[in-house]
Structures are given as structure tokens and as C-alpha cells.
Amino acid sequence: MADRITMEVARYRPEADDAATFERYEVPCGPEWVVLDGLNYVKDRLDGTLSYRWSCRMGICGSCGMTVNGEPRLTCATFLSDYAPGPVRVEPLGNFPVVRDLVVEISDFLEKLGKVKPWLVRRDERPLSEGEYRQTPDELEEYKQFSMCINCMLCYAACPIYGLDPTFIGPAAIALAQRYNLDSRDQGADERLEVLSEHEGIWGCTFVGECTTVCPKHVDPAGAIQRYKLTAALASLKSLVLPRGAGKEEAARNA
Amino acid sequence: MVRRGGEPILWLMFSAGGVLAALVLPILVLLFGVAFPLQWLAAPDWPHVLGLVRHPLTRAALFVVVALSLVHSAHRFRYTLYDGLQVKHLDELINAFCYGGAVVGSLWAAWVLW
Amino acid sequence: MPDRALYTPHHPRWLRHRVSTWWWLGRWSYFAFILRELSSIFIAWFVVFLLLLVRAIGAGDMAYRQFLDWSGRPLVLVVNVVTLLFVLLHAVTWFNLAPKAMVVHVGSKRLPGALIAIANYGAWVVVTGGIAWLLLGGTNG
Fold first, then answer.
1. Mind listing the pLDDT tens digit for each residue in C25-46?
2. Are A164 and A194 members of one domain?
3. Total number of domains constituting chain A
4. Within an 8 Å CB–CB cutoff, is residue C16 touching chain A?
5. Which residue range(s) make up the domain with A17?
């Protein structure tokens, strides 16, 4: 049983390099060691200059997404022993600019996330005296899957459309917009429609489906997007036929 | 440049065309493309097909299937050009070629059918 | 520190990889996707073929016979066999993916996607049967 494994880790030092290089590190491969454990071993014992992001190491913070042997993975959820005898190639998350080593620049995603207003939008705030907003289990089921997103951006790394055109708003942003559109407490579907029906919004998506394949939380962003295409298209049609735009939220929730 | 309002309608037509193409074309390709030419099955005689094609319902159905299938193909091919060949900057040319082709095809279909 | 990080596409020291023209050969799923998209070419071809057929029918018995002969020529046959494969690819991927876009609710519960897919396949069987019946038997003269 192999108890050591070689990791080929991408290095990029902006102050000195013009391109990425690979350095090989031999790390222990304990029975439940994940790629992140290997990286931490490198940083602690072998090469303290290695830069990378991580936090919870249990698949909920979304910080440790990287490309492992060509696949976008959460390094805290990817076992080293699966790649025995190795080597394992660890590169920064795809489709994002690399700042240093394994650290990518994610402001693009954060900006797009902000654009879709990922919070409950109310036209009319109810006073506290009316009590809390109540929801049946069925109403919760409507959007629950999309609320599982941890913003790890593996879907952006997997999406070839985002790779080809970084102005594309991307899978997670649309899935999160849907999480709120489909929430019975939300009244903001109209506002999100504006942003999402731009050409770089949902219409750039050609339903490759890779985003759903790589999502570690089973959010199914591809499904969210296709469903929203139908909603948005019907809303567009309705606004052509009935210019007053009757019942868009109703339509958004029922689609 | 496709207007922002254009995409949703194009997508609806693309979807409708996709459904119709998926439902109707396979059997037609199987019969007229493969089975009849290879004589696995006897091709229907001329009076029979003439009677079918002449019927106003058939003409209308054929036109709808043809026109929407062409829009479906145009839409899909346009995006394949964008993503496959990375020529999105030529989008005006591509749109004209794809959707223009669909329109020309539909006009030809109308001429053939009526 | 700006209070909102601005995305600047051309930061001089960030490393950006240009997507290769052959990106779609990189993964099997990307390749399968491109194949599915290319089915659009074969659908367009068969529409043309169909219109040529209708035109031949309208032109008379001789023209119809000639068209059937032409469709039996090796090149045309090969193209149509390939077309059949791609049209089937289109149909199967379409029906399998349709439930993602078409979410149907009965009351407050959502119908399972598999049911929608089965309904689509069912419709396919009915339409296929109907067309075959019309062409091969049906209203015979």
C-alpha cells in the first residue's frame, strides 16, 4: 500500500515568472488524506512559499476549489489515495485569472453574484406585528436545492462558455437568482429578470451541463438555468402581448 | 446584433423546433432516407403520397415542422460557431447567415408546398 | 482598499490562459456536447431533402421515382444514414433534457422529471406510429 504520493503543484510568482511552472513534492498519503492535507503538508514542512486558499476543510466554505488532474474539485473532498500511485497534478481553478500559485482572482464572480440580488427582495415590508413569513414544506422544496450553493465556483471552471466569454454571468449566479425567484417570500423576480435577460445572462448558456456534473452540493445549476430560460422567455412573450406585464412573479414562481 | 428582446423569442422557436424535429424527423429519415432507398420496405406509390401531401393539413404541418426545424438548426449552429470556432465577434455576419438561411428555407418551403 | 473589488480584465501580473480552439476535445462530455450541437447541420440537411421530396411528388410520378432512385445512390444513402444517427442523438438528448426546462406542478407538488421524460418518449412513439401508418398503410388509395 503506497504511503507516499507525489504532487505536481502549479507555481506562479508574478514578481518573477511570466508563466506557470510545476514543482514536485512527495507527501505522505494517509488512509483518509485529501489533496488539501497534502498541500498543508507541503506548506508546513516542505515549501512555505506555496500559496492557496482553504478554510473549513469540510466542503461547506467553498474556498479550496482547484483543478486536480484536470477536474475542478474541492481539494478538501478529494482523496489522495484515489490517485495512487500518482503523481497528482494540482493547478489553480480553471477559467479564472491566476494571482499567485493556486490562488485565483474571483472578483468577477462576486460582482456577478451581486448583480442578481441574492437576497429576499420585498416591495412591501410587512410590520413585525404581522409575525414571521411562513412557508410550507412544499414551498421550501421549490428552492431548497438551489440554496445549497457554497459559491465554490467549480461550475465556472467547468463551464466552457464562461471560459470562452468571461462576460457570461455563469451558472452559480443564475442558480442563486433562481433560489430567490422561487422563494415564496421573495418579490424581486422582475428586478432579476432585467439582469438575467441580457445577452450575457442566461441566453449565453447552451446547456452543456458540465456545471451540474461538477457541483459538489448537487445544486444542478444547469437545471436552474433551463427552467429560468422558459420563465424568462414566457415573461418576454407576455410583456409583448400584455405590455402591463401582469403577474411576472406569479409566473416566475410557477415555472 | 440581436436585440435584447429577440433572444427569448428565438429561444422559444428553437425549443419548439427542437421538439418537432425530435418527434417527426426520426421516422421520416428512417423511411425516406434509409428504408425506402434500400428497399427494406416498399415505398408508397405516387398516388398515395400525392394524396397525403396535397392535403391542407399535411401542407400546414410540413410547413410548421420545416420552418421551426430550420430556426432550431440556425439557432444551435449560431452558438456552435460562437463557441466552437470562437468567432463571436462576427456575430452580425453569423446571425444573418443562420437566421437568414432559416428564412430563405422557409420561403422555399412555402413555395414548394403551395 | 476599494470597498468593492473591481474586476479589471487586463491586470498586468495575473496569469490568464487563452481557451484553445480545440477545447471541446479536452473532455468526453465537451465532445459529446459538440456532437449534439452539430446535429443541427443534419437536421437542416434533412429538411432540404424533405422539401426536395415534396417537390418531386408535386412534379409527377416520374419525378417521384427518380427522387427515390437518387436517394438510393451511395453518397446520398451514407449521408442519410449519418443523418439518422444524428437525428436520433438529437431526439434522445432532447427528451432526456426536456424535464429540466419543463417543470410541471400538480397542486403544490412538482412532478418528477422522469415522468416528463416518459411522456415525451410516449409522444414520440405515438407520432412515429402515426406517420408510419399514414405512409405505409393507412388511407390507401
1. 989 999 999 999 999 999 999 9
2. yes
3. 2
4. yes
5. 4-104
